[in-house]
Design a protein that fits this description.
Elements: H1 6-24, E1 33-35, E2 41-43, H2 44-60, E3 66-68, H3 76-79, E4 84-92, H4 94-99, E5 105-112, E6 115-123, E7 128-133, E8 137-142, E9 148-150, E10 161-166, H5 172-178, E11 183-189, H6 193-199, E12 206-208, E13 212-213, H7 214-225, E14 245-246, E15 249-251, E16 266-272, H8 278-291, E17 296-300, H9 301-307, H10 315-334, E18 338-342, H11 348-357, E19 361-366, H12 370-375, H13 381-386, E20 408-410, H14 417-430
Length: about 425
């Protein structure tokens, strides 16, 4: 039976090291590359490591299910009642493997109750092994030497930061985020090594604003979480989600020990067309949460524009506006505030950026159709936009990009305001953000 223990961690590290050695057999020019259904590359090294890991884990304890990137992925219903399972990426950083820069890894993690409790990363080309366990600390072994305990801590406020970033996945969201913090150095790395750099103090923070699959991050997340001198580092990542996918994240800046006692904060973000009903619903949700005694701050996009009247409506200006409001929301959340924000926020990239800033982000898409919104338009804004009197009006001459994975969808063409508010409160109650 698998337990969270020093012996289990040593055994898991051995499995990862063996799989790493198997990848090195194929680490040469001319290795054959195939394309999977999602167009991502796969090689014989991926499959060799997968076979070794899956067999070794099954021999260890057949009662613990295994999810491997190179295996059959169980669906949501099959995983619904899982309390523990393995997450495996047999070869993380296939691009780095093919470029032969050494920055590829073998990742294995044991997840219990949505949290990685054992994690091992082997970087065979660099002769590095990282491993950690819940309550066991985080460790590094280099070139077969003695294990070195890894200890990390949040950076001092205001200190210029060393930022770990993906070598293969640059993004406009990252560049925008880096303009909001003092940056001393940017440290590029492939695969899950970025988590390890933060855990051992080579970097202070690792921001990633694109989605990641759970097997990409679980082992590194475990190593980072357990690199605290006492207790655990704070991580927003969760596991066994419906699509085994995490949104963007930022790790390394702050820890739970810095948060206020009492209720944790959260950000409830309403998005939808003008006239969809999002502001009406948001305000009633604010009233309901205040009646429960929660500390709530309401951020209205139009009201914030009045404070900053120079904010325009081009795509670039809207994007900057959403990011500013999102940054403000994330700071309030850090202090235990429930933030309810209502903005058209028409662009998916902007909303994904905000999600990455926040620890607990809930997106509510008010999906009321355009024709219904136009019928409700008491200010005549849609009519003016159709006559060409208003430029960059969302839904008319500027696009609205619906959220791809909102936590809740509300169509007020078929729901009353009270019914919509009830659904929001039920969602918050299920996630621990509202009372019975």
């Amino acid at each position: 039976m698998v337990t969270v223990s020093p012996d289990a961690l040593v055994r898991l590290a051995g499995i990862a090291a063996e799989a790493g050695r198997a990848t090195m057999v194929h680490y040469h020019d001319g290795v054959a590359v195939e394309r999977k259904g999602d167009r991502s590359p796969v090689t014989a090294a991926d499959r060799a490591a997968h076979a070794i890991i899956v067999q070794a884990l099954a021999d260890w304890d057949r009662s613990v299910p295994i999810v491997s990137e190179e295996g059959e992925i169980p669906g949501r219903e099959a995983r619904r009642d899982w309390t523990r399972f393995w997450l495996v990426d047999p070869l993380d950083g296939t691009k780095e493997f093919l470029q032969r820069n050494g920055e590829f890894t073998v990742n294995i993690a044991l997840v219990e109750a949505g949290v990685p409790v054992l994690g091992v990363i082997s970087a065979p080309a660099l002769d590095l092994l990282y491993y950690a366990g819940d309550g066991l600390g985080a460790w590094k072994r280099e070139q077969g030497g003695a294990p070195l305990r890894l200890v990390s801590r949040p950076p001092a406020p205001g200190r210029p930061l060393r930022v770990a970033e993906s070598r293969s996945h640059p993004s406009a969201e990252l560049e925008a985020y880096l303009r909001t913090i003092p940056v001393a150095e940017r440290v590029a790395a492939g695969s899950s090594l970025k988590f390890c750099w933060v855990a051992e103090g080579k970097a202070d923070v690792y921001p990633r604003f694109g989605p990641t699959m759970e097997w990409d991050v679980a082992a590194g997340d475990c190593i980072f979480r357990n690199s605290a001198r006492v207790g655990r580092r704070a991580s927003p990542l969760r596991y066994n989600q419906p699509e085994l996918r995490n949104p963007g994240f930022v790790i390394g800046l702050e820890d739970r020990g810095l948060e206020p006692a009492g209720d944790p904060g959260l950000v409830l973000w309403f998005t939808g067309l003008s006239g969809s009903g999002k502001t009406t619903i948001a305000r009633q949700v604010v009233d309901a949460l205040q009646a429960q005694g929660r500390a709530v701050e309401y951020l209205d996009g139009d009201a914030i524009r009045e404070i900053f009247p120079g904010t325009g409506f081009t795509r670039e200006e809207r994007d900057a506006h959403i990011r500013r409001v999102g940054y403000l929301a994330s700071r309030l959340e850090r202090h235990g505030i429930t933030v309810v924000a209502s903005l058209v926020s028409p662009y998916e990239d902007s909303r994904r950026f905000v999600r990455g800033l926040c620890r607990r982000f809930t997106e509510v898409y008010v999906s009321t159709p355009l024709d219904v919104c136009e019928q409700r338009d008491v200010k005549g804004l849609y009519a003016r936009a159709r006559r060409g009197e208003l430029q960059h009006f969302t839904g008319i001459d500027d696009p609205y990009e619906p959220p791809s994975r909102p936590e809740l969808v509300l169509d007020t063409a078929s729901l009353t305001v009270n019914e919509a508010v009830a659904q929001v409160l039920e969602l918050l109650k299920a996630s621990g953000g509202a009372e019975e």
